[in-house]
Amino acid sequence: MLIGLLIIFSAGTLQLNFVYFHDWNEAIKAGFLIFSLWDVLKLVVAAIISQEISRRLI
Questions:
Q1: pLDDT value of position 58
Q2: Which pTM was predicted?
Q3: By CB distance 3.0 to 4.6 Å, which of 27, 33, 39, 44 could disulfide with 16?
Q4: Residues 5, 43: contact at Cβ < 8 Å?
Q5: HSE-CB for 10 with a 13 A CA cutoff
Q6: Which parts of the chain sit beneath pLDDT 70?
Q7: Judging by beta carbons within 10 Å of its beta carbon (0-12, 13-18, 19+), is residue 27 exposed, middle or buried?
């Protein structure tokens, strides 16, 4: 899931840089930093839930 998230963020940041901002720093701030914290948090919660479900099923 983390690799997929990095691919999506990279593509979005590239698009923001080339189409909208034309500045890497602004594209990273607007497209990566804002959403990365919450998506990493979602990944951690999903991993915890997955481990708990796996533990209960075994």
A1: 80
A2: 0.73
A3: 27
A4: yes
A5: 6
A6: none
A7: buried
Structure tokens that stand for 51 in this block: 């481990």
Cα separations (Å) of 26 from 32, 37, 57?
A: 10, 17, 46
* Residue 48 pLDDT: 96
In whole angstroms, give the CA distance from residue 50 to residue 39: 16
- In a 3-state reduction of DSSP, which class is residue 4? helix
Could you say which DSSP state residue 22 is in?
-
Instruction: Read off the amino acid at residue 36.
Output: S
pLDDT value of position 28: 94
- The residue ranges of every structural domain in the chain are 2-57
Which among 34, 38, 40 has a CA at the least distance from the CA of 12? 34
